[in-house]
Amino acid sequence: MTELPLEQTNLQSLVERPFGEANRQLLLDEYFTDHVSVTPASAWRHIYHLLMWLDPTTGLAHCYESDKCQPGRPWYARSLAFHTWVAHSLGVTAMDLGSHIDYLFKRATLDLTRATEARERRYRIQAQLQRARHADGSVPMPGDDPELREIITSVLGPWLRHEPSTDAWQHLSRRTRAYIGQENKRKNLVGEGFEDTLAAILSKIEGLQLLYKIYIRPNLHDLPGFYPPRQGDKTRQVDLALIRRTDNHRILVTCKWSIRSDREEQFATDFNAYSRLESSRQRFDYVLITNEFDPARLAAACEVMEGANQLFSSVVHVNPSGPLAAYDGAVQAPGRGIERAKGHVTSGRLIGVEKWLTAIAG
Q1: Which H or E run contains 16?
Q2: pLDDT given for residue 41 in this prediction
Q3: Burial 334-354 (b: 16+ CB within 10 A, else e)
Q4: Model pTM score
């Protein structure tokens, strides 16, 4: 069970796993060295500086599935509204927003590039020996991609004063493939990176570590008041846990940047498992923290019941003003889902990270 702060590991191993937990922690430490003052009010800004990104197909801050945010579709207008809102709220222009967000991913990909280049340098001499008997050019060179070269030449050919060298084409092919591959790694970084970011923020807010022990991805049975799993059952893990030092009150947090339909089903499954393994006969809080923008999914999370009680003690959004700005940017009349989500914001059922942090700190 890992209680903050995490121990540092060998720096070389970090850059060899740039999207791994140890390097994410290093990057968070690096970021917060320059942002020493963290408060409940500023927490959501740090989350977006670290994790929000621009959708490469729209150029706008990502708030919903890319295929539904394309120009002409309903969520494009909402994405435009959210992009404008978040840029203004972060104090930057809409055109310059991209340079002020996505810190974790950009830094991790920079480390990935460095690690890849170092690995290529180590292998280059061996590769030359391996290709020595094929020096007549009878086999393709590594990184050669004729189809990509044709695409680039057909578009940029009229602007190229000289034909790029073979080495230049190979370098461009490698960089292009690396860029495409990097985006596939974003899901993993955003998933656990959201948990890491929230834990880092909790550890930086004055007084919170005096009130709570903070754990990232602990096994449930390592927390006070829970039985270990029975033989043959799988070990249950919690995204984030806060244990109040004075009385061991437990806050179990599920952190989900977005809420897919399979995750909606998993919420109740996890809660039932936690309840079955509870050994102290004391209440625990079950909290959802998300950046979901789909109004129906947000409303469903607020409304889901477990018996006669609401499943979640609190449903927390990074900043509900973001979804509200997106909903108000819709061209067509709001649907039932939007009205439900707005109603939960108005009633206080759906709250922001700022309000939740203020409540637990009080």
Answers
A1: helix 11-16
A2: 97
A3: eeebbebbbebbeeebbbbbb
A4: 0.85
